[in-house]
Amino acid sequence: MTVKLPHQASVGHLDWSPFAQQIVEDAEAALGFPFIVLSRFDTAARTTQPVFIGGLHGRNNQRALRLGRRLIPRFDLYTVGSVDANPLLRATFEGTEPVMGSVEDFTHGVVPPLIARIASHIAGAAHVIAIPLCVEHRVLGSLSFHQRTPHFSPQWIRTGQAFARQVALSIHNAELLEEGRRASAALEASRRLVSEAEERTRRDISEFLHSRVQSRLLVAEYRLSEIADVSEEARRRIEAVRAELEHLREHDVRQVSHRLHPEALRMGLVAALQILASQLHGVLDVRLVADDALIAAERTLPLPLKLVAFRATEEALGNVLKHAAAGCATVWLGLEPGRLRLEVTDDGRGFEVGAQPPGLGLLCLGARVESAGGCWGIESRRGGPTRVWAEVPR
Known about the structure:
Blueprint: E1 10-11, E2 14-15, H1 17-31, E3 36-42, E4 47-54, H2 59-71, E5 81-82, H3 87-94, E6 99-102, H4 103-107, H5 113-121, E7 127-135, E8 138-147, H6 154-226, H7 232-260, H8 269-279, E9 285-290, H9 292-297, H10 303-324, E10 328-336, E11 339-346, H11 360-371, E12 375-380, E13 386-393
Parallel strand pairs: 9-10
Antiparallel strand pairs: 1-2, 3-4, 3-8, 4-5, 6-7, 7-8, 10-11, 11-13, 12-13
Helix pairs in contact: 1-6, 2-5, 6-7, 6-11, 8-10, 10-11
């Protein structure tokens, strides 16, 4: 049995607390010592600090704790100490071999001498062997074993070193996993920021086209209509220019504005995709299918979710236009528990998945979906069909 005091300790960015107690309990079971201290080492600050202390439940240890608290009320068992406080601590955290000595020598300059004497004479922790936790020429911390006598057998020391090596590897692996998790989170955050920045840019350009550019085109049309004292031939040419300006304003600018930032999404995802499909009419026949669950809940879907689904569909259809040589494509949308799923299937020539790296369109699709915490995939074969799917959490 061990007693864990309330303390949170970490090395670098890694929190040792979740596994510190287990390490000490395993050391007790494997090596037979009732009083064990797991300490960490801060390389930058050159400090050491206990993370977990096992064996405090013993009667003598409890007596020692009560006496220590009465004599020095503010003393903390988890005190941070300088590695350079005494030669034994420095040897532990600068070497790779076990270091032995009295508890007074080990704690000199770190804890009050009275506490060391109480630990030695009442708790029976008079002598210490500290085994560094080393991995890749780096000392992460130490395991310290306390007993009344100064004798530690060579066989026990070898066993202790082997145990410490396994502990060091386990902590190092946990550090690597934590670094990987943080790197993955940072990548997801950067993807999200890039996606948000792109959407802001698209929206700004869309608003600029919709308001300022369209207004100027409208003014140009009006000024052309004011020209009166011209020949019939000139009037026909002016009318032709006015018609071109009107088509440019009502069709091209409006269409580009919608592609940049689909305002129709505020009416619904299905409506926005219907507009997208109509814009491809004559180039690609797009059939849109939405299940009942999505149609029923469409008003409650958050705009960012609808935007991700719209952009993913847009990228998938763009990929069909560029590479599939397809005549038609089917877009299927469905709402499942906790997620929105979409599929884009085309009747094009297909390809062998994995034979070549994905192009920019699919990479953009993947980045958008993954930035929202979703996943995606592609299924195809030579001769078709090809199916791109994506799932985004609600």
